[in-house]
Amino acid sequence: MSPVKGDSPFIPSPEEYARAALRCIGYEARCVPYWRHSVQWFLASLVPDAALNQWRLQTGIRKRNEMKALVGEK
């Protein structure tokens, strides 16, 4: 699932997420099955799209650079 390890209120175990996802299928156009992710989605919906898109872009670029650095170290 996710390479992120450790305790986080927003990272469910694979089993928790699978159970939540199965309950969600077929009920909504957008499936945000895990309740904590629903909270995140709600909070994100309050932010203007331009600001959210800028944050996503910066996060993606940062992660890409981190991965390049990791690959370059080997």
From TrEMBL:
MF (Gene Ontology): ketoreductase activity
Name of the molecule in the record: Uncharacterized protein
InterPro entries linked to this entry: VLCFA-Steroid_DH
Keywords attached to this entry: Oxidoreductase
Source domain of life: Eukaryota
GO cellular component, one term: endoplasmic reticulum
